[in-house]
Amino acid sequence: MADLPQRALDDEVRRFPVPALRSEADGPSVGALEGEDRSGRLARVVEREIVPRLVLARRAEAARHATPGQAGRAPTGQEVEALAELVVERDLPVIEAFVERIRARGVAVESLYLELLAPAARRLGVLWEEDRRTFSEVTIGLWRLHQLLHGLSVLFQADALPPSPEHRILLVPAPGEQHAFGLTMAAEFFRRAGWLVSGGPALSAEEITTLVHREWFAIVGISASSLGKLDTVATTIHTIRRVSRNRALGVLVGGVVFDERPERAALVGADAWAGDARRAPLQARALLDLLVQQA
Questions:
Q1: Would you tell me which CATH number, out of the four given (1.10.3470.10, 3.30.930.10, 1.10.1240.10, 1.10.287.3510), belongs to the domain 69-158?
Q2: What CA–CA distances, in Å, run from 108 to 26, 52, 56, 116, 155?
């Protein structure tokens, strides 16, 4: 913590309130026990909340100002199209070798995630919409992209922040969604930012409701890729708020349908739009700040 700018740290301490103590039924709290002195509580806030937020802000700032020369030449549009073809047509070793050649020129794993794998997944969606690929081919391609993501995860998580029990998030696609590659990538960024992530694809509305009722989550994130899922998302959000073990549950939404029009987040009853995978953990922390202030 010694290398953090003191002014930035002081600003965060002033901005971030020390949360009121909560009962165990409400889930973990930043404050420890009723008799703990304020300085001890503040130290925990600095360690668990402020320092991780500053680290995330630094990463985001560095990403905004990075140049191709600093991080290697970014993946090109032609490489994205090539990967979208390879994941359908070729076996995994060939695909991994293709990605490794790009990484070998100095491209960061984060850039591979956001500028190669994610666009390739979107490209597969376009090919399906244009009837140039079958549903089965797109499913195979997305499965191989998941394998690539899994293979790169060890490198991506090398500098992950330690997980915090106060930061538990459930990430799920809208019930009935067929593909959830973007959500899997978002989970990678949340884990790197120190979140405990639960969830998975193909959960029914009943399974999501049961999880939120049984376990304490600070936030639930739901993704949707089509307009036809908006009513389902709205119904799911209404239900989980009613049954949630955490009475101050935060809800984020993401996916193509919200990326196109972020104002749809309010229409379905969510607290905020998550943005892209890199931005989502910052959005989640900002939402938690707001919920603490409103408590």
A1: 1.10.1240.10
A2: 39, 21, 16, 11, 10
